[in-house]
Amino acid sequence: MSVRIQEADFDVSAEIAALRKGDAQVGAVVTFLGTVRDMNEGSAVKEMALEHYPGMTEKSLEEIASQAKERWNIRSSLIIHRVGSLHPEDQIVLVAVTSSHRGEAFAACEFIMDYLKIAAPFWKKEETSEGGRWVDARVTDDAAMARWVKK
Amino acid sequence: MKIELRFFASLREVLACSQETMIVPESLKTIADLRSFLRQRGSAWAEALAEGKPIRCALNHQMVDFQTNLEEGAEVAFFPPVTGG
Questions:
Q1: Nearest CA to CA, how far is A134 from chain B (Å)?
Q2: Residues of B in contact with A53 (CB under 8 A)
Q3: d(Cα A77, Cα A114) in Å, to the nearest integer?
Q4: pLDDT tens readout for residues B29-80
């Protein structure tokens, strides 16, 4: 399990190679890559500033990764989230999960991303042609997370 | 009681405050009590922390609900719903 918060960009291929290196039990790698759109809520987005809560961010992502590890039979996971100034088409977030078989990695990767969306302390501010505005949380994010609640 | 306050995102901007160390009355028991105490600091505070505003809070880096008890020396953060990913 590994968690990183950074301003710098990342290389997906290199990250995947490092994550599965030396583990011949891995038969599946699932990744999610989130990127910056140039349109949101009908406005052109020129730039995006990502703020976070240092200290809490790392703890919350580690907690999310550890819950995924408890629920699914996965080998390892990696979460990288960028902060600072980003532009359309930039990479924002990478979640990568390795497992022996694909089903566990698919589920764990989606769980981590859905959970991150509602629980990890990041906030986006968009610079649009109409000025700066904080992005509102989506109700659909809560609905996505609700699917994972154990009945 | 000594509390470390933290504010983030839109709350940090409207309150013009990112962090502050505060001595608050011992009569404040919960984070909800602290929230209503802070509303007395002025109109910006009253509006930003008003009941019904979708604010989240964390105690010592753990997201918690507003009924959670305060502790001496605790770090209490207020922020809008998160929008990462």
A1: 7
A2: 6, 8, 58, 61, 77, 79
A3: 15
A4: 999 999 999 999 999 999 999 999 999 999 999 999 999 999 999 999 999 9
Contact A55 B61 (CB under 8 A): yes
CB contact under 8 A, A121 and B6: no
Minimal Cα–Cα distance from A1 to chain B, Å? 18
Task: Tell me the three state secondary structure of residue A60.
Answer: helix
Nearest-CB residue to B9 (from A81, A120, A134) = A134
Residue of B nearest to A80 (CA): B85
pLDDT of residue A46: 94
- Token pair 């359309």 in the structure block, residue: A88
What is each CA distance from B51 to A54, A142, B12, B32, in whole angstroms? 27, 21, 18, 10
Q: Where do we find the tokens 């500033």?
A: A49
**ipTM of predicted complex:** 0.95
Three-state SS for B16? coil
DSSP string for A20-34? HTT-TT--EEEEEEE
Evaluated on CA atoms A116, A117, A121, A123, the torsion sign reads positive
Q: Which residue of A has its CA nearest to B19?
A: A53
Q: What is the pLDDT of residue A151?
A: 58
Choose the mutation target among B15, B55, B82 for the interface with A, i.e. most A CBs under 10 Å: B82
Q: Where are the beta strands (DSSP E) in A2-150?
A: 2-6, 28-35, 39-40, 43-52, 74-82, 84-86, 91-99, 122-128, 131-134
pTM: 0.94
